[in-house]
Structures are given as structure tokens and as C-alpha cells.
Amino acid sequence: MPTEALIARLTDLLGPKGVVTDPALVEPHLVEWRGLYRGSASVVVKPATTEEVAAVVKLCAETRTPIVPQGGNTGLVGGAVAEAGTVILSLARMNRVRAIDKAAYTLTVEAGVVLADVQKAAEEADRLFPLSLAAEGSCQIGGNLSTNAGGTAVLRYGNSRDLVLGIEAVLPNGEIYNGLHGLRKDNTGYDLRHLLIGAEGTLGIITAAVLKLFPRPRDIATALVAVADPQGAIDTLALLRERSGDTVTMFELMSRFSIETVLRHVPGTSDPLETESAWYALIELSSPRAGGDLQNALEEGLGEAMENGWVVDAAIAQNDTQRAAFRRIREEISDAQKHEGGSIKHDVSVPLASVPVFLARADAAIEKLIPGTRPCSFGHAGDGNLHYNLSQPVGADREAFLQQWEAANRVVHDIVQELGGSFSAEHGIGKLKVHELEHYKSPAALEAMRQIKRALDPYTIMNPGKVIAL
């Protein structure tokens, strides 16, 4: 537990409102979204400037006090869990939009800006920031970058890593790295930006970033379709990319079970299709060119997919209300699944052509391991990322099912590895997957990671126990 002397020094640096020790106010920072972990730290610091972050980190380096950076605390792998003796560093007060350059299509924001507010700032400038995920109303951009978040538009715009031109960060020794240049070309040595993005706060604390913006969509077409099988979905995606001039922005694959969980547990949702199928796809096309008639392109493409037997039914949104209803079905799956009992999660990616093979092999292997398990498969199939979640068998004991977590992970991740995929597609490593990283990553890669960690953080104060085991 941080000493009274340390707390007094932190208070001198940040003022009374920058240091939280009241257990009731610390409590929200200890709860992990999935409920797999619970933190036990007793102090939260809330710096308001990069200089204050640097001062806190310098003090913690001096006293060898571990720091756990925390954004919106919406992570899914225990990356923001803070054990006793650590100081939680919340970026919530660093929530300013620093600058926007409409001509250069850039937006400079601090790490504590909520993702939805980043999107809003871009929209107010008649621009688009395309990163979008279910937690966008509470997650913060610093956390998004620290975990290299993906979301629903990766197919068109890329991961968080692809949406950043420059960052500002505080390194483990308390020095400030200022890379907020916004340049699109800079070949001056190692790119520290990409080293810090996706490092989950283990190599430093991202405090601000220059983000890429894009023209706002003026023409949008959205459909929810029933597909014959996962292969039909992949074939339909390829056809639509070609027929629409590669304007597919979103292509989300959903199993019937995943949709049924939403229909059962989320009020106000309804099945948009009369035909019931084992698999569905949420598809969206968008273009900054008004009057491009994407609706017609989508209709013609889906018509051709039906003739080929890939699509068996389709509903095309006729207005924004219907579009929102289609999207909501996809967005509510994670929360709705909680009502089906215990759930074992997998966030995996495989080569696009291997998606059908993975689903067939994984379903068969899990049924053999835990008979009656209900796969709740959904995700960003357009980029090969699937959330292969497993709901407990009907009537099963929840705790007994969850005790199979590691065994199920091994079965699923082995299949992913054989197919040339990744056991962590967009959620990161955090605390949950440290052993998986050791198991699947090559010795050369692991040793390089350890050397980087030791070089930048010799006292291992930055988010200890996360990502890489030393």
C-alpha cells in the first residue's frame, strides 16, 4: 500500500482533487467489465496535464511504486487491473480537444477524451473519425490506442494503429516524448509511436495523439442478410467489394444463437427477417460522394449473391431508424450473452479464407470437450476477426463450466495457430493472456519484447504483470 508520505507528495504535485483515497470513489476503478478480476489498489491519481503525468511517473520511478494507467476501464483482458501497492493513474481529466486541422484532415486530442466525443468533434468539423466499438460511449481514446482497438470499420480504415499520425507519451522514467507532429512521412529512425501503441501501458503512458480524419460519408447503404453458411458470407463479401467499387465499410458475421440472445434479452429488438438461418451478416457500404447510389449497388450485389445461393434472405435499411435497428442487434450481443449463464471468451483472427474452416473445426472440438456448449460466434468477419464465445450448456453449473476456460482456450487457440491466425485479434493481452503469449509466440519474439521492456522500464513500474512475463 502506498505510504502516507507518498500520498502526501502526490497531493503536493496534483492538489487535493488530483488524488483519490476515499474507498467509495476508488471502487469504480477496481471493477473489471467482465468480472474476471477485481483490483485492490487504494489510491487513484488524476493528473490534468501531461506535465502532471510526468511528475507522477518520476515520483513513482524514484520510489519504485508500480503504476497502472487507466482510461475508461472497458478492457476485456484485465489490462487495467491494479493490485495492492500500485497507484492507478486515471487519464479522465485529460479530456481536451487540442486542435483540428480540416485541411490536413487531423484531430489532436488528449488521452482522456471519450471515443464518442472524438467522433463528435470530427463530425462538427464535417469530418469522420472511423473507429467505432460498442463501448464508444465510455472508452477513452488513450485506452483505444494503448490496446490497438479494432472495431467495426477495420475492413475499410484499419485498426487504431492505422489511424494515428503522432503521439505524446510519458516514458517510465518520467520523460515526455513529444511526437505530435502529424506528419504523414517521417523516416527518422525507430517509430516510437508504433512501439507505444498496443503496448497496453507497459512501456509508457499515451497522453495525447494526432488522429487521422476522413471525409464524412454522404451515401450509406446497410443490410442485414441471412446467408447459407460462413462460406457464403465470405463469397458475398468478395462480390460486394468488387461490385460496389470497394466501398464496403462493415461486414459483421453473426450466428443465429448470437442474434437470439439479443432478441430474448434486449427490449425493443426484433428479428428483421422472415427466413431463419444459421448465419447472418450485417453489411454496410459508404462513400463520401453523395448520389453514388450505393443502395442500388447493394441491392444488385445481394441479388447476384442470392442467385449464387450464398444469400437466402435480406433486409435493406430504408432510413436511419432501420439502419440503427440493424446495428443495434450486432452491438448488443456481448451484453445479451451475459443472460445465458457462464461464458468462455475467445478473440481470434484467422486468414479470411479460413473463417469457415475455423468455425467448423472449433464447433466440433468444443462439442467434444464440453458437450452441449452453445457457441456464440460473431465478429468482424471482413477482416478475419471473430469473437468465438461459448455459452454454458442449458442447465449446466456455471462455475463448473467456467473451470473449463483454459482447456477451451487451448483447443480453440491451437486450431487458430494451425490456420496461421492469432489468439488475440483486438482485445490485447492484458493479464488474462500472458501465458497464452508465452505459449504461442516464438522465443525470439518473446526475448525481443522482454529486452524492450527492460530497456524502457528497468524498475518494471509500468503496468506490471501485463502483456509480457519477465
Automatic annotation (TrEMBL):
InterPro entries: FAD-bd_oxidored_4_C, FAD-bd_PCMH, FAD-bd_PCMH-like_sf, FAD-bd_PCMH_sub1, FAD-bd_PCMH_sub2, FAD-linked_Oxase-like_C, FAD-oxidored/transferase_4, Oxid_FAD_bind_N. Keywords: FAD, Flavoprotein. GO terms for biological process: respiratory electron transport chain. PROSITE patterns: FAD_PCMH. It comes from Elstera cyanobacteriorum. This is Hydroxyacid dehydrogenase. The keyword Protein transport does not apply. Belongs to the FAD-binding oxidoreductase/transferase type 4 family.
